[in-house]
Specification:
By secondary structure, the protein is an alpha+beta fold. 22% of the residues lie in helices and 35% in strands. Helix 1 packs across helix 2.
């Protein structure tokens, strides 16, 4: 029996750029009774050095997930000094008041799709994190029961993803369908995180 105020169904697809042994994207998510946090970091370029940068961000979020988004981004920036850098998406869901807060720096996309199919696309802040101090724009909005949230790196074709989502789809079916149809088209590291919100 769940004791949380809400919960999130999550499904992930990840694939490295063709010819690379490792993916330069890293992701992490954690659910607690009152909140859910998810981060997607895309290391600049691809391969080992990109992975090193994106993994540095994940290590920060694993330690600091309970902090505010602005504080987490600040600590991620500090961890990227003398590294290649990342673009980043960071999401926090508050189960108690059914809201989400999100920031995106660079070309990590986030789209929220309601049960009626209506989409809310958030525009990222330009640039990337590389150890230099920078402001990030944090958006806070309400969540509705069964809202779907998609966070993705630039290796994911947004149009192909969103044009094949039905309001009755489960998150796992959307992500699996994209993975099966899109693998041959991937020209860069690709990570797709699909999430669906439920009230407890």
């Amino acid at each position: 029996m769940r004791t949380m105020e809400g919960y999130m169904e999550v499904s992930v697809f990840q694939k490295p750029k063709a010819g690379n042994a490792c993916c330069g994207d890293s992701y992490y998510y954690k659910e607690q009774d009152s909140e859910f946090v998810c981060v997607l970091a895309d290391g600049l370029g691809s391969g080992r050095l990109a992975k090193e940068s994106s993994q540095a961000v994940i290590e920060v979020v694993e330690r600091c997930y309970h902090h505010s988004i602005n504080t987490i981004v600040e600590k991620c920036n500090e961890a990227l000094t003398d590294k290649r850098g990342v673009v980043l998406g960071l999401l926090k869901v508050d189960y108690e008041d059914s809201t989400y807060a999100f920031t995106s720096v660079g070309n990590v996309g986030i789209v929220v799709m309601g049960p009626n199919g209506k989409r809310r696309k958030h525009i990222p802040t330009a640039g990337y994190l590389s150890g230099n101090n920078r402001k990030c724009n944090v958006v806070k909005e309400s969540l509705t029961e069964e809202d779907k949230i998609f966070m993705f790196s630039d290796g994911v074709n947004e149009r192909h993803l969103l044009n094949n989502v039905d309001e009755n789809d489960t998150i796992s079916s959307v992500v699996k369908r994209y993975a099966h149809r899109g693998e041959s088209d991937i020209q860069d590291d690709a990570t797709l995180i699909g999430m669906k919100y439920y009230r407890a």
